[in-house]
Amino acid sequence: MKILDFFYEEELDFKNAIERKQEINSKNLIIKGARHSGKRSLLLSYLKNFDKKEILFLNFKDLRFKEDSLLFLDDFLKNKIIKIIIFYGVNENFTFN
After folding, report:
1. 3-class DSSP assignment, residue 12
2. Is residue 84 within 8 Å of 58, Cβ to Cβ?
3. Contact indicator for 41, 20 with CB cutoff of 8 Å
4. pTM of this prediction?
5. Distance of CA 72 to CAs 36, 61, 78, 84, 95, Å?
6. Mind listing the pLDDT tens digit for each residue in 41-96?
């Protein structure tokens, strides 16, 4: 659960977020695209509307992230006010049960 705490407390870098013409207006969304096509900027632009304590941004590309930590996600969310969870950099073979 320490890994989930780390990503929950990590500051998101909004200064590099470029405003996009497209907006996110869906409760559940999968964003796919080529590298450096603006997926992260789109997400960060959307996340600016939330308080830091309402966001859990899990970066699967970060070497510190372990998929096994998702086994503790239910317990982790019990005492938090998280409104949005981002699974960023997920491999296309990923399954979440």
Report:
1. coil
2. no
3. yes
4. 0.84
5. 31, 19, 10, 17, 16
6. 888 888 888 899 999 999 999 999 999 999 999 999 998 999 999 999 888 888 87
